[in-house]
Every structure is written in C-alpha cells, then in structure tokens.
Amino acid sequence: MINLKKHRNKIRLFLTVIGVSGLQSVNAQNAQPYQGVVGKTLNDSKEWWPETVKAPKGAPNVVWIILDDVGFGATSTFGGIIKTPNFDTLANNGLRYTNFHTAGICAPTRSALLTGRNHHYVHEGGFSHVNMSAGFPGYDGRIPSDKGTIAEILRENGYNTFAVGKYGLTPDEEATDAGPFDHWPTGKGFDHFFGFLGSATDQYKPDLVEDNAHVTPDGRHLNEQITDKAISYITRQHKVAPDKPFFLYYAPGATHSPHQVAKEWSDLYKGQFDSGWDDFREKVIANQKRLGIIPANAKLPDRNTRIPAWKSLSPNERKLYARFMEVYAGYLTYTDHEVGRLVNYLKQSGQLDNTLVFVILGDNGASKEGTLHGVIKPKTNSAKLVTEGAYLKTNLEDIDDIGTPQASTNYPLGWAQAANTPFKYWKQDANSEGGTRNPLIVYYPKGIKDKGTIRTQYGHVIDVLPTTLEYLHIQLPESIRGIKQDTLQGTSLVYSFDNANAPSKHTLQHYYIFGSRSIYSNGWKAEAAHHPDNVELGDFTVGQTVPDKSFDDDVWELYNLNDDFNERIDLAKKYPEKLKELKAVFDAQAKKNHLYPFIDWYDVYHLRIHQNYKK
C-alpha cells in the first residue's frame, strides 16, 4: 500500500499535470529546464518545482506618465501660464529635467520610450498606420520581438504590468478583434490594457479597447475612464498581492486634438488669453527665467513669419482665437486633475512613498495641426471657405461648440508657438528643439534627496527605460519568451539624480521625422528642415500644394546649444568644417539605425497610391 502522506507532494505534482489542481508548474515567461527525476513510478521519481519569479523585496512600484502634444512652455510646472498644480507638486518634491527630448511626434516617441531604443531601430520611423508606414526595416511599424518593452522586462522580473490610454503602436490591419494580437499592448508585456490603439480619438466617443477586444465607451471623458481603470487595476492587485510591485503606463490622449473638455474647466480661463499669443510668450519666458528653467540671458526667437501679430487681428479674430486657448488650457488643467486623482489614490492607499514616477510633459512639441486659423469642425477649414475668407464667419457662428463633444477642436498655430516658448517651431519638426524638447519630472519620495531642484543634463526618451532598470537593480534579460534580446541604446540618468553638476553622459543623438532631421553631439547641433513652411495637413485642407522637394536641396543649419540653447544664431557659415563633420556623423547614425531610405509623409502617400494601383 502507498503511503499517501509520504508522497503527498508527488501526488500534488501529478494532479497539477492532469489539471486537477489550479497551480501552475511552469512560469510561461521564465520557463526553467526541469531539474527533477521522472521515473516509472513515484517511488523512483524526484519532484521539482520551478522557483516563482519575484521582484526584489521592497521593490518600488513604477509609474510612467506621458502626455500628448504639450509644448515646453505650457504648464505652470515649467513656467507656463496654464495651471497644473499636481505636476507642480510632483516636481517640487522631485526633479525637473529641462534638457530632455522626445522624437518629435507621437508613435516614434512612444516606441523609443517603451523599448529604450531609437524609433527607426525598432521600425517606427513614421507610424503603424497603413498609410503612414512603408516596407523598409525602419518604417514597417512593427516593433520586433528582440527589442522587448519595459512591460515585458518588468513582468519577467515579478511585476504586474498595466497600460491605460493611448498606445499608438498597433498596425491598422491588426487592430481588429480578430487580431493578431502580437503588436497589441497585451502582446508586448502588459497584463491589462484599457484605452485606444491609434494615434488620436474622440474624448467622449473613443475607439475604446480593453485587453484584446473593443468595448463600448460609457460617455464620460476618456481621461476619467482611464484613471478609474488604472486605479481599479492597482486596487485589485494590491488586495490579492500587496507585496507585489506594479508598473503602470498612464498615457492619456490629452492634450492631442480634438480638444474636448467640460465647460467648467475651460471657463476657468475666461478672458485670461485676451491679450494674445505675443503677450503669452513674454509672460512665459519671464516665468521660466525666474524659476531657473532657462538661462537668465535667454531671448525669445522672432515670431514665426506665418503668424500674425496679435495686435493686427480684428476684434472677432481675437475673440475666436482666445476661446480656442481657453479650451486648451482647461483641457490641460483637467488632465493634470486626473493625474492628481491617481496620485492621491496611491497616497491614500499607502503606496505613493514607494512609487517611482516619471512624467513626460508631451510626446513632442505643441501641435501645428490646427492650421493657421484653428479648427472647430472640418467644414470650417474647407478650401472654399478659407479662400473666400468665410471661415471666420462660420467659426464665429460655431464658437460655443469649441471644446464640446460636437466639435473636433484644435487651436491655431499662434498658440502652438506660444505653448512652445522659448523655442522655435513645433511638433513634427525634428530639426528643432521646439519639436523635440519636452520637460521631464522624476519623483520618488524614498530616493530623491535633492527635492525641487533642476537638472540640465541632456536626455532622451530612450533613457527612461535604462534609468528605471538601473534604479530597480534589474538587468535586461538575455531573452524574453525564448527570443534573444538586442542591446539597449539609451543612457541611464541615475547618475544625475544626486548630482546636479554631473556632466551629461548622453552625448550623441539623431532625430528624423518626415524629412526634418538633426544630429546632436556634445552640445553642437546640425539640423535641416525638409518642408519648413508646411503646417502639416492643414496646407492640403486650405487648398495649397506642397511641391516635391529633394532632400539634397535642404539647407543645413548649425548651432552651439551650450551658448545658444534655443537656436537663435546659425553658425553654419562661420564653422563649415564643423557642419561637415556633424553631417557625416548623422549619416553614420542613419545607416546604423535604419533611417534610410529617407521618407516623409508625402513619399509614403504616393507609395500607397502606387501599391493600390498595382493591386
């Protein structure tokens, strides 16, 4: 007779194998070779259980927050006029990084952030959208499995992983409920996802997804829904496993267009922008100097030639344009409020003190996609209305719709330049600091000693992942789900946490979006705009034509950012050899990171037409 007590562990193993027990014998993410002995009977067998992967004891939770289309000078946290009290609090009790950079547009920035590698290197040279990708290694819009995400890495190390809000990295043709789901958030390491897969969505009628299926939105603002869902995920986990850390990727669609927010928020700013975008810039640069965000001797770049002086506008134009900015400001303040709800929940539940928080205030510079005149409804930007000058009358008739669920609001270009104070240009302009420089906040009550101080070390979104791993004492896995992992390209910023004067370790960085390109090397920067006068798709909307333009015709500029941080003095003619040197460095980086062949949006558009024609 078998002694059941003696063999109870072996019996448990047997029951697990045949499915009677709910226990898992192998961790799917960290499968370990079987180390027991399997004989013909239990008596001549030796059982073995794989070790459960656990995060180090006391390991902090990690929260990454990334906003959308926020200019450097928008938030009060970095000298702006728009109130963001919750970001202020995080920064005042953490670190402000003022020399941090993004890729210049949403999907490239997010792919670089999540993988710790340059965006072309992970195949996101443009977008994952079918009409904005191309069949080349740097542009196919599919992050390879050998370039694992932060969620995959942390899940391999015992973390639960959640994502809410904007993802933007799933190819259109895979974004149905039939999948495949390899490039959905759940296929890239997230245990749960609630948000939208595309680049933009309506805030009240979002194209909403939960985990691997589309769901029906409940009519509330998307910011409120994703915050509730994030709190729900954390609450459920904490109840069952209070000692298990979590990683949360919180990425609201805000403040991307459509600018939509309840009137109670936009009305907070009634009359506050009546003095216009020129006055806004002057006030913001003064605030930035006072706070030490920028050098005390900084000067504003000239107003872009396409933007009229505020004083030259008619009273009706001023009334209309001021309302656009009131709505945008309310939208940003409301977004800050929802982040505050998340932070307050963590505080009340006793988890905030052990939570490492990164806040990136924008995935690129302020958006130029609202055209010169602003957008309420697409009809107001038809070529006929603009040509005849009737857009102003139509928009004034619709002024009360600005910011409502009935409108597709985006502010005019003058406010984009104002929100980008003190830089030139805006979103998509990867040649310019105005397109790529976004503030970063690092907050961790247990670990940040020099609270409320500023860091000027050069940084880029590819640095956040290695910074997180170093601070958690976690190594990049050699393989994830059996796939050998490529090396990271970012530089950890941990060296600067306790040393404001530490020299920058990230000394070389390239940029490329739709033809606009630049190279940064040890304080010097060479850059070339490709369509410098294009206001994104708005030019097509108003009936203008963007001519074919050879990349060889692009004019390169040269700046010494050590002395001229906001690119006011072009040194290309003074130092031609330096420019030649940097252009060669850019070419080497382009080859290494799959930037070639050069493609801008117009190339992709024509490529798709050609492919459809062949079909």
From TrEMBL:
Domain Sulfatase N-terminal as annotated: residue spans: 60-473
Keyword Ion transport: no
Pfam family, one: Sulfatase
Statement: the UniProt record of this protein carries the keyword Iron-sulfur: no
Alphabetical keyword list: Calcium, Hydrolase, Metal-binding
GO MF annotation list: hydrolase activity; metal ion binding
CDD domains (UniProt xref): PAS_like
Organism superkingdom: Bacteria
Protein family: Belongs to the sulfatase family.
Protein name in the entry: Arylsulfatase
Protein's organism: Mucilaginibacter corticis
Source organism phylogeny: Bacteria, Pseudomonadati, Bacteroidota, Sphingobacteriia, Sphingobacteriales
